UniProtKB/TrEMBL annotation, chain B:
Source organism of this protein record: Silicimonas algicola
The keyword Cell cycle is annotated on this UniProt entry: no
Entry's localization field: Cell inner membrane
Organismal lineage: Bacteria, Pseudomonadati, Pseudomonadota, Alphaproteobacteria, Rhodobacterales
Domain TRAP C4-dicarboxylate transport system permease DctM subunit: 12-423
Name of the featured protein: TRAP transporter large permease protein
Transmembrane stretches, start-end: 6-35, 47-70, 141-164, 176-202, 223-242, 248-271, 283-302, 322-349, 361-378, 398-420
PANTHER family for the chain: C4-DICARBOXYLATE TRAP TRANSPORTER LARGE PERMEASE PROTEIN DCTM, SIALIC ACID TRAP TRANSPORTER PERMEASE PROTEIN SIAT-RELATED
TrEMBL record, chain C:
The protein's assembly and partners: The complex comprises the extracytoplasmic solute receptor protein and the two transmembrane proteins.
Domain Tripartite ATP-independent periplasmic transporters DctQ component: 26-155
A Gene Ontology molecular function term of the record: transmembrane transporter activity
Protein name: TRAP transporter small permease protein
Swiss-Prot/TrEMBL keywords: Cell inner membrane, Cell membrane, Membrane, Transmembrane, Transmembrane helix, Transport
Main location, first listed in the record: membrane
Pfam families, per database record: DctQ
Subcellular location: Cell inner membrane
Topology in membrane: Multi-pass membrane protein
Organism encoding this protein: Silicimonas algicola
Recorded GO CC terms: plasma membrane
Stretches that traverse the bilayer: 12-35, 47-66, 87-108, 128-147
């Protein structure tokens, strides 16, 4: 049986490569019974449609940056709380703490959780030296979701909404002067043509999650379920390793492009940690007990 | 062999529906439907609705109806008349006369809009009536418009280059710069063609423009001031950082409303007429885009474009052979898909082939754009043909025939790009933007 | 019969006016977004709202565009078949109406699904998606009605009633 797997990122992105590895693994392990056909680059369904497509069986398996669906349920945003989990180890721990609640939430949406892989940590891109939150005041900051808009508000930056496709041009024309994203974004978009500084504030590590349509999952034989789960575990590991490896690669790339790549100064770190606490509290207000148990589980 | 079977069915249904006169958007929808029913067990209707909703409500597309509206407003002002009054004394003596305004107009407007349909409607709305009034041959008017409007994709900003850049992770500003010279060269080639064809043609007898002294020509140029202002405002808003490429279209609408008002041609009835006209034209294009989005999804499920690209990859060609194979491949694909879908559906397979063959990825972006430009004017599915049919009422076959010379000029352009790759690569390599600059 | 005719024509026109208003709204939203940015204010979700307006404007205008001959098609065969044109038109409108009802059915389904799944926009607007999708569904249904209307007119009156088939401003060679 062929399972079409829509993916949002280009074929050469490490998430897509990991998913391809997973697909190959499943094909081997089920001796061809489940043949997952990947469709990278949003060529089947664009990113925003993938969750719904899998939910409703338009595709049987897919990958999505689940935090993009935080409007629907704040719990989906567990991996994008600024300055809560700021390293790969933290990210793994947070993911483990969140997994039961996440699996339950996904199951209620007719989805079965398979695995997730973190992006390299999110850093701060800027056009000048930033030593404290005070330096950010009034800077035109690209806000693309509720969390980044809130961050802009807390740091008294001027939020500008720019769609991903227009980011490069917005930077070139000065519509935006700063944004938070992983090193890979800056590397792929070659932002050194327009910006000068990258601060490794490691704000959060968003994760791409791979999920299966629950009905399709329930229809699998026990052997095939096991095979798929095993492949998922392997893929999660290779993806994580790849992400770690690439973090440095992207940072080097940014530096080579001519950007100053540096960890944040003490004041900036302290300021950001303060924002992080505020936003964690706000997230807990939105998610209640479930959120509290995730944060407790993570902090222990 | 199932691929051949699939191709056969797709083509049969497509030609049956399109050829018998079913509306283009609905015909595409029908073809996609048949394809999905045959090749996947997924729920067809729901997948269609999902993808059509996303395609129809996309932010980057909002510029299109606005540019169409801008064209409708300008068409109802004295602006186009004025523009011709300013330009004709200068251009009338060129071989080919005012047909050049089509090309120059499209080139300039290409710097304002990122799509070829918007370029086409705005310029065509203004130039077609003026050129007809001067008795230029219809075929020449339509053909040059169809061809030159494709410059909207090559001269920055360009939707196709944005999609390509995001797909292959190449700098979009670099790609934009790479498009400048090839765009200008292509425009020049169109103009040379017009000059030559008009001198050779026996039915090229436009009404002669009255003689004018040099000073009179200069004085007449004052009529160009409003157009120049409008263009400066729209392009300026983008490059000065007041607006993104999409938002610049809003500047265009407001600017043309202001122009119409200052000229005294803005009445309630011209306003509503322009608005209703723009609404209908946008709806016409939206229906086709909806059908095309569903067809593209259907193609994705069948895996056909990817399979064909895979096939080419398996031939192990030399660099030149590979480019020729891809040229043919994209021309054929372009007959049935719009440019952006062609890029998105095939890049996963084509990109590694290109990198392996050592082809410059920025250069290839321009190659792709030229090829995708051709797709705009090749039947049965060519957007510029559709838009022109909506605008002029000509049969698609007439428009397609009128555009054939432009098609061959673009093929020639591909070879020029291969012979002189610096055309595309020189500018991005030599304008190194300083960090922070 | 006459009341029905008037009701239908009113429906098409009403939708067209609504579509035009959505187009104006889209312009205003984009302008507001720019002004907000220049003045340091935020307009969360502006891009999404503009997108909804565009989808609504497009779909609600489908029927009017059809009635005014704005939707394009390949007319070669239609002119070539001469006196059999009525039969070919019958085929075109039958296929067209089928496709449009298919579209309408699933556009309505989309609204129902979105409502049932509680699907919310991923942009900063966080709009429940069934609301903007309703405009698309309405437009699709009215479009299907319009095509059926013309189909029935061909069957019973012999003519589809689209005023200017090719809304051209000029000659054809
Ligand atoms: Na352009
Ligand atoms: Na074509």
């Amino acid at each position: 049986e062929t399972w079409d797997m829509p993916l949002a990122y280009p074929a050469t992105n490490f998430h897509t490569e990991t998913a391809q590895g997973f697909a190959d693994c499943v094909r081997d392990a089920t001796s061809g019974e489940i043949d997952i056909q990947t469709h990278p680059n949003g060529s089947l369904f664009p990113g925003g449609d993938i969750k719904r497509a899998v939910q409703t069986g338009q595709a049987l398996i897919g990958e999505r940056l689940l935090s993009a669906h935080a409007n629907e349920n704040a719990l989906f945003g567990y991996d994008s709380i600024p300055f809560l989990a700021t390293s790969f180890d933290d990210s793994v721990k947070l993911n483990e703490a969140a997994q039961p609640a996440l699996e339950e939430l996904l199951a209620s949406q007719n989805l079965h959780y398979l695995y997730s892989v973190p992006w390299p940590p999110q850093g701060l891109y800027a056009k000048k030296e930033i030593n404290s939150a005070a330096d950010l005041e009034g800077v035109k900051f690209r806000a693309y979701n509720a969390a980044t808009a809130r961050l802009a508000e807390l740091a008294k930056m001027q939020p500008v909404q720019i769609e991903a496709a227009e980011l490069s041009q917005a930077l070139a024309t000065g519509v935006a002067e700063s944004f938070v994203s992983s090193g890979s974004t800056g590397y792929d978009e070659k932002v050194w043509e327009h910006l000068t500084h990258f601060y490794q504030v490691d704000a959060w590590l968003p994760r791409n999650t791979i999920f299966v349509n629950l009905d399709a999952w329930n229809g699998l034989s026990e052997e095939n379920k096991t095979a798929m789960s095993d492949c998922a575990a392997t893929a999660a590991e290779t993806g994580l390793a790849k992400s770690k490896e690439l973090t440095q690669f992207y940072l080097d790339g940014l530096a080579e492009g001519g950007m100053t790549v540096a960890p944040p100064g003490d004041q900036l770190r302290t300021d950001f940690m303060g924002f992080g606490e505020t936003m964690t509290t706000e997230w807990l207000e939105a998610t209640g007990e479930q959120g509290q148990s995730i944060v407790d589980g993570f902090k222990n | 062999m199932s691929d051949l079977y699939a191709i056969g069915i797709f083509l049969f249904v497509l030609f049956l529906l399109l050829g018998s006169g079913v509306w283009v958007g609905l015909a595409l929808l029908g073809v996609a439907w048949v394809g999905m029913e045959l090749f996947t067990s997924r729920p067809v209707g729901d997948a269609m609705a999902t993808i059509i909703w996303t395609a129809s409500s996309s932010w980057t597309l909002t510029a299109l109806p606005l540019f169409i509206w801008m064209g409708e407003i300008l068409y109802r002002t004295r602006l186009s008349e004025d523009m011709f009054r300013g330009l004709s004394p200068w251009m009338a003596r060129l071989p080919g006369g005012l047909v050049h305004t089509n090309i120059v107009g499209c080139t300039v407007f290409a710097a304002v809009s990122g799509s070829s349909a918007a370029t086409l409607t705005t310029v065509g709305k203004m130039s077609i009536p003026e050129l007809r009034a001067r008795e230029y041959p219809e075929r020449m008017i339509i053909g040059t418009l169809a061809g030159a409007a494709t410059l909207g994709l090559m001269i920055p900003p360009s939707l196709t280059l944005i999609v390509y850049g995001v797909t292959v992770r190449e700098s979009i500003s670099k790609l934009f710069m790479a498009g400048v010279f090839p765009g200008l060269v292509l425009a020049l080639m169109f103009m040379v063609y017009v000059a030559v064809a008009s001198s050779l043609s026996s039915n090229f007898n436009p009404k002669p423009e009255p003689y004018m002294s040099f000073m009179a020509k200069v004085r007449n140029s004052r009529f160009l001031i409003p157009v120049v202002c409008l263009i400066v405002v729209v392009i300026g808003s983008m490059y000065m950082g007041f607006a993104t490429a999409t938002e610049a279209a809003a500047f265009g609408v407001i600017g043309s409303l202001v122009l119409a008002a200052t000229q005294g041609s803005l009445t309630w009835s011209t306003f509503t007429e322009s608005l209703m006209g723009a609404t209908r034209t946008s709806a016409m294009i939206a229906l086709i885009l909806a059908g095309a989005a569903f067809l593209s999804l259907s193609m994705g499920f069948t895996g056909l474009p990817r399979g064909l690209a895979d096939l080419i990859g398996s031939w192990e060609l030399t660099r030149f052979q590979l480019l020729m194979a891809l040229l043919v491949f994209y021309i054929v694909l372009g007959c049935f898909l719009d440019g952006i879908s062609s890029v998105v559906l095939t890049m996963a397979v084509v990109e590694p082939m290109i990198r392996e063959a050592g082809i410059d990825i920025v250069w290839f972006g321009i190659f792709i754009v030229v090829v995708v430009e051709m797709a705009q004017i090749t039947p049965p599915i060519g957007f510029n043909l559709f838009v022109l049919q909506g605008m002029t009422g000509h049969e698609m076959s007439f428009i397609a025939r009128a555009a054939i010379p432009m098609f061959f000029i673009m093929v020639l352009m591909v070879f020029i790009l291969i012979a002189f790759p610096e055309l595309a690569t020189w500018l991005p390599e030599n304008i190194r933007q300083r960090p922070g600059g | 019969m006459k009341t029905l005719r008037r009701a239908l024509d009113g429906l098409y026109l009403g939708c067209a006016i609504l579509a035009a208003l959505f187009l104006v709204a889209m312009l205003l939203i984009i302008v507001a977004q720019m002004v907000a940015r220049w003045t340091g204010v935020t307009f969360p979700g502006a891009a999404s709202y503009a997108g909804y307006c565009m989808a609504s404007a497009s779909f609600l205008a489908f029927a009017n565009a059809l009635n005014r001959g704005a939707h394009i098609r390949v007319g070669l065969l239609l002119t070539a078949v001469g006196r059999y044109r009525r039969w070919l038109e019958l085929w075109c409108f039958a296929i067209g109406a089928t496709a449009a009802w298919f579209l309408a059915r699933y556009a309505v389904n989309l609204v129902l699904w979105s409502h049932q799944l509680g699907d919310v926009s991923q942009g900063q607007d966080a709009t429940p998606l069934w609301i903007p999708q309703s405009a698309m569904a309405l437009g699709a249904v009215v479009f299907a009605i319009a095509l059926t209307d013309h189909l029935l007119r061909i069957i019973f009156a012999g003519d589809h009633g689209i005023a200017a088939e090719l809304a051209g401003e000029g000659s054809t060679e």
